[in-house]
Amino acid sequence: MTGKFDVNVLFNHWDRFLEGFIHTVESSIIALIGSFILGTIIAVMRISPYKPLNWIGTVYVEFIRNIPVLLVTFFFFLGLPSLGIPIGGFTAGTLGLMVYTASFIAECVRAGIQSVPFGQTEAARATGLTYMQTMLHVVLPQSIKIVLPSIGNQFINLVKNSSILAVVAGLDLMYYADLINADTFLPLTVYTFVALFYLVLTIPLSIGVHYMERRFSSTDR
Amino acid sequence: MNKRSRLGAFLVLLVVCLVFAGCGSKKESAEKGGTLEAIKARGKVIAGVKYDTKLFGLKDPATGKVEGFDIDIAKALAKKILGDENKVELKEVTSKTRIPLLQNGDIDLIVATMTVTEERKQQVDFSDIYFKAGQSLLVKKGSPIQGLQDLKGVKVLTVKGSTSAKNIREKAPDANVLEFENYQDAFTALKAGQGEVLTTDNAILLGMQQQDPNYVLVGGNFTDEPYGIAIKKGDAEFVKEVNDLLKEMKSSGEYDKLYEQWMGVKPE
After folding, report:
1. Where are the transmembrane segments (chain A) (predicted)?
2. Which of A20, A88, B102, B227 could be joined to A176 by an S-S link, Cβ 3.0–4.6 Å?
């Protein structure tokens, strides 16, 4: 019975599949933008010549990158409300996802920044630009091009990791899949459709990564 | 069919025959007279109990002892029939195995959080109700929520795919039901303030209430799944014996004492 494949499950439970899918997309987009900005800030801090900033950046990356995303999410889901900050499962899951992914993006961006020849920084500083101006106008624009493919890979991971929302009742695709499975007892069908929903999001990202890889490798230098 | 597979088939047949022969002989011995005579002749009560259920029948991994409300009722029965509460042998049963074990005569009775249902009454006889089980609500002490009527727009936590989730959606359609992986996760979320109410069987909620007395059950049961003691079908004599025991325990106050000892609250 559990091995039976029944296409009607998709139509009978379309509302819940769709609601879950929309929440997954929302959470992914918010976390994607947030982690990109946060990750870039952390990367700049990490290679900053100012020791305290450098130290904060390094601690952030080494701490967050080396613990499970579930744990980061539980911190927001269980920790913040007990400190008097009421956030629900969706927000907690999205924050967890963002903070976690930012640590990986920070490492990608740092590698990108460091691949821009140091002479560029020296030249920019010599013209009178501050460290921040040098980063914003000279180094980052060049390095982003280099690191876009690897950041794209992190975004693919982010979309897949968004399934942790299911554990904190974040109403995402995986959460509703668990409920539909409990109602229908057709796990093979339910989770196959869930896989397809995730592929709808991740395959375009994957194609984008390939495109960027080809484009930047042919036009650069 | 080649020789090897034929031999295999023969062996399987042989094993099946032996197993059935074993079952048959057991059945015979148990059917001689009623369960009550069998217990008296044997000098002990064999009770099928749960080993994994908090408050009712739980094996303590440190001491290896099985303890709980169900166990104490089995002991009381041994005391009534044989005059010694220690003359009881506990056998672990699960919801799946308990009826076959009773029908085989491996156990004299089932005291294992068993809900009385019409379907089960076709297979076994039940004693009077000894625990009013049903779905209830757990809230933080002092919460304004006192029952199903207060759940409009309230976050109610329960477990994914459980009957409790279905029941609460039916009984309180305006509640915002959030489902978690298991009861411990749901209770942790309740404690973290991710919801105002946790709903499931009162037996599980009573266990949580003992774990953290800041949380209390409210509103009574809104489903009816009472526990009874199951006895082999047709053994009216033994059913009466068990019912007499429950009556005696209730009038002597022993039932209330045991209930309070295990559930942490007085019976309703």
Report:
1. 20-45, 57-77, 83-106, 158-177, 189-212
2. A20
